[in-house]
Amino acid sequence: MGLTDRAMCVASNRGHRRVYERFAAHDRSGAAEAVFTHITEAWLVRRSAPGDPALRRRMRADVVA
């Protein structure tokens, strides 16, 4: 669905790590929240227009987190 760049890959990997960490900790509600957040953020990023300021904020916030 379009081109991906390094920042998008880093953000996606961090989302996967959060999901894994919650599952590994046997935290059902935390895992559910992490999955929901990851899928929602991925959907929003993929559907943002290139150069969209909201897209840049989401990717930057995820890299800092």
Question: What does this protein look like?
Answer:
This protein has 65 residues and is an all-alpha fold. The protein is built from 3 helices and no strands. The longest helix has 20 residues, at 28-47. It starts with 5 loop residues before the first helix and ends with a helix. The mean pLDDT is 81.
Task: Describe the structure using short key phrases.
single chain; 65 residues; 0% strand
On the 0 to 100 scale, the average pLDDT is 81
Oligomer: single chain
Q: How many individual β-strands? A: 0
Q: Label the overall shape.
A: elongated
Number of helices: 3
Report the order of strands and helices: HHH
End-to-end Cα distance, whole Å, is 25 Å
Strand content: under 5%
Global Rg: 12 Å
Describe the main β-sheet briefly. none
Overall structural class, as computed from helix and strand content, comes to: mainly alpha
Instruction: Tell me the helix content.
Output: over 70%
User: Which stretches of 5+ consecutive residues score pLDDT under 50?
Assistant: none
